[in-house]
Amino acid sequence: MKLEFKKLKGSVNLKPLVQLTPFTYGGSTGKVVFIRIIAVLFFIAPCFSCGSQNKESNNYASGDIVIKDTVALDKAAISEEIALGAYQPDLYLPLLKGKKVGIVANPTSMLIKKDKRLHLVDFLVVEGISIQKVFAPEHGFRGTADAGEFVKDGVDTKTGLPIISLYGSNKKLPVSQLEGIEVMVFDIQDVGVRFYTYISTLHYVMEACAKAEIPLIILDRPNPNGHYIDGPMMEPEHTSFLGMHPVPLVHGMTIGEYAQMINGQGWLANKMQCELRVIKMLHYNHQTPYSLPVRPSPNLPNDVSINLYPSLGLLEGTNLNAGRGTEMQFQILGSPYLPKEKYPYSYVPEPNFGSKSPKFNGETCNGIDLRETPRMSRIDLTWIIDAYNNYKKKEDFFNTKNFTTHAGTAVLQQQIEQGFTFRDIRKTWLKDLKAYDAMREKYLLYER
After folding, report:
1. Which residues contact 349 (CB under 8 A, 6 or more apart)?
2. How far apart are the first and last CA of the chain?
3. pLDDT at position 143, please?
4. Chain centroid to CA 319: how far?
5. Residues pairing with 135 in the sheet
6. In the 8-state DSSP scheme, what is residue 74?
């Protein structure tokens, strides 16, 4: 099915402050008619405030390929002019009206202006869009599952819509689940790191849509780590759901740009092409700092954790705790096997939201507090190298299979064990990074 893409000007027509809206949607519970009172305050202007994560609790919430120098994260300097794809309904509602729609969404799929928040699914239902199913990635639709935790199919208690897990026994989207759907929508906040699984979910959604000949609309969102690329390239023999494509660990693209690259590079099965439409952002470029208003997953609670995640995410393949089991996930690191005289900061991991069974549960970890780290423009391996060099049981430091899966290569562990400095390690990445940077150029939608 081909979509007709019309160029529309201005924002959507303003609705009354309070609106009684009868609407119908299909689902496993049959057709249900609701009358809902809703305050429609969101589309008074085409741009939204970026907000702060402090209001969120457990709902998420030398050869450098770098354009600008490292600068400190400064929320006061963050632009409020970015209009995300989801904030431009005049561009996508006409493509959905009268169609049976499937949507890939999670807690980040929000329409936000100052203190007003409305989930995209709720907004589409109010607008009379016939949503058939909601497809949920890792952590689930409402974002309550731990990293790697099996997510079951179910029914959303708020809307009654059927929820189909894309992080269950099969992470591929079965084409059979698209039966009766005429168009798919994808609205997920990514953080620009290869082993963050939303881009793998995107791949499988595109593949299923291509097989079913269903168009996919992506509502683009900023990449908070989109101002640089870095890290080792994924090697084909190590591909998994934590890395499906030959890209560096930090890929430097928005989700919409990444989708175009998947198509353009022929990475779908049998080099299929997904009919793709990206609703671009306004007033955004790759150097624009962006403070996520909703945590993208349970263990990335704030800007600092997202800033450090490309570096500290590799700790998942070691015998170090990266702050899971605390409220400082991916902002601290530690282990009982690090010497206290060199690692005076200490903490005790305990089960909490997002980590039911953290590493070293109930044990005192000696480590480092990294919460004052400025905005990064490259990966930093010095923390992991120093920890390895000071670890009391070096033979237990690496979980080799898991570390290789995250790194995308077996070489990085070997380099650390052989005493390579970070500078020496990084030099081995530069040739591949430059080739990747040239390749991705044609898929970029925004100024670098």
Report:
1. 321, 324, 325, 326, 355, 358, 359, 360, 361, 362, 363, 365
2. 34
3. 54
4. 25
5. 104, 164
6. -
Distance CA 241, CA 348 (A): 31
Q: How far is CA 173 from CA 177, 196, 430, in A?
A: 7, 18, 35
Specify the pLDDT at position 16. Answer: 28
Interhelix angle for 255-264 vs 198-212, to 10°?
50
In DSSP notation, 154-199 reads: EE-TTT--EEEESSSS--S--GGGGTT--EEEEE----SBTTSTHH
CATH homologous superfamily of 19-279 equals Uncharacterised protein PF07075, DUF1343 (3.40.50.12170)
The two structure tokens encoding residue 172: 């591929």
Give the pair of three-digit tokens for residue 314.
Answer: 């590799």
Confidence of residue 212 (pLDDT cuts 50, 70, 90): very high
Count of other CB atoms within 10 angstroms of residue 80: 11
Quickly tell me which residue has 């991705």 as its tokens.
440
Residue 332 has phi, psi (to 5 degrees) of: -135, 165
Q: Poorest-confidence range of 65-69, 145-149, 326-330, 357-361?
A: 65-69
Burial class (CB within 10 angstroms; exposed 0-12, middle 13-18, buried 19+) of 33 = exposed
Please name which of 133, 424, 440, 447 lies closest in space to residue 280, comparing C-alpha atoms.
Answer: 447
Region 344-363 average pLDDT: 96
- Alpha-carbon distance of 138 to 315, in angstroms, equals 19
Stretch 350-361: mean pLDDT, rounded?
Answer: 94
Annotated domain spans of the chain? 19-279, 303-417
Coil, helix or strand at residue 438: helix
What 8-state DSSP symbol labels residue 372? Answer: T
* Per-residue pLDDT, 17: 28
Whether 345 contacts 334, CB under 8 Å: yes
Q: How far apart are CA 321 and CA 332, in angstroms?
A: 8
What pLDDT, in 10s, does the model give residues 5-20? 333 333 333 232 222 2
Distance CA(278)–CA(202), nearest Å, equals 13
Beta bridge partners of 102: 133, 184
Asked if residue 109 lies in contact with residue 124, where contact means CB atoms within 8 angstroms, the answer is no
The helices-and-strands tally (H runs, E runs) of the chain is 10, 16
Mean pLDDT for 266-283 is 98
Give yes or no for a contact between 232 and 378, defined as CB atoms under 8 angstroms apart: no
CA atoms within 13 A on the CB side of 201: 26
Nearest to 249 by CA among 401, 381, 417, 443: 381
